[in-house]
Amino acid sequence: MAPVKSEPTTEMSDFEKQRLANIAERDALLKKISLEAQSAGLLSKTPAPKAEQSHKKKAAPKRAKREKDAAPVPRRSSARLAGITPDSEIAKRKAEEAYEAEKLQMEAKRRRVAGDLRMDEIGVKGKWEALSLDSLATSGPAKYERTFGDEDIKKTTNKDLKVMREKMSGLNLWDAWEPNRDKVGNLGILDASQDGPGDDEEEDPVITTIKPHSRPIAAMHIHSSTPSKLYTASYDTSIRQLDLEKSVATEAYVADDSGLSGVDMSPEDAHTLYFSTLNGVVGRYDTRNNATKRDGSTNDDKSYSADEWQLTDNKIGGFSVCPTKPQYIATASLDRTMKVWDLRFLSKKTPRAVAEHISPLSVSHAAFNSVGQIATSSYDNTLKLYNFGTFDLKSRKSTETLTIEPDAMIDHNCQTGRWVTM
């Protein structure tokens, strides 16, 4: 019998030897880790068999009586699921009804609220504390006294303070309080005497917010002789007097059909209100004409009769009464002009300004300072300063308007009307 030939043995390559060595090393490592985990008690033990459950049934818990559900709130229904054709008369009528309902709701929110308003009833944020504001009636700076000196400037930082939740349209100052107005009729009062937060603190300042108007508040004014009373002019056609001593906001004036854009007073007269409207009218009203009842509350049946002048066909963004010469007022208008008017010789039929300056774009506000200079802000992103005392008004004819130029002009990139308000 012939011998069987043995097959030649093939030698493993170096790569195969290395692969097998790696597998063996890995298995040994896993085995070692498993043994160490068992000795340390980290691996879960085999669960013990569950005890046989008792055949006795547990008593079912008593169910609490379910209260009757309230009537479901009507939800928006789908016209497609209801089988209504988009262009059908039913769909059109349904859309018109929804539009009218929403329109009525918006008009109700924007409608002016007549009568007296108590501060604790119109609060939006914070708590109204009348006692903390009593000091305003007795304390305050003297006339033309500087209240913000060089030391205050050094202590001032560039850190912004977010006072109102909505866009602010202006700022006014009391001795220790700052009232601010926004675009929805809210009035915010910030206690400026409170200590500022540290670098690591994120606490919000103490702010009281009330809602004396149903439309945006366009302007505010505090007369120097009555520091406890704040006048606010609003797009809802009314001027309200906020009395801090009585904690009540009363109607000081109501226009017929136009929103108000400004309010000011002469330093020499604490009873006469000057106002401007969105239709280009400037008016003057004596608050002593307001009828009052015996208990001191206002009479809802009173009518307001004011002297009015139609100075322009465009909106008057802001105006100011000259504190040194109250017969002069300065107006800023959408027609790109800043004009100065003399109320003594102002005709209601053909009013004519004594001086004017035309800007490249609309002028948003004009304000006199205590020495009679006029500052304006314009949509050309400039602040202009006019020295009213140097105007040669005597040499002009009564039928002419003096053309003036600013004595100083400051350019900025802060977007007037969006970030800058005077």
From TrEMBL:
DNA-binding protein that binds to both single- and double-stranded DNA. Binds preferentially to UV-damaged DNA. May be involved in DNA-metabolic processes. Keywords: DNA damage, DNA-binding, Repeat, WD repeat. Belongs to the WD repeat DDB2/WDR76 family. Residues 55-65 have a biased composition (Basic residues). InterPro entries: WD40/YVTN_repeat-like_dom_sf, WD40_repeat_CS, WD40_repeat_dom_sf, WD40_rpt, WD_repeat_DNA-damage-binding. One of its GO terms (cellular component) is nucleus. One of its GO terms (biological process) is DNA damage response. This is DNA damage-binding protein CMR1. WD repeats lie at residues 327-344. Residues 41-89 are annotated as: Disordered. GO terms for molecular function: DNA binding.
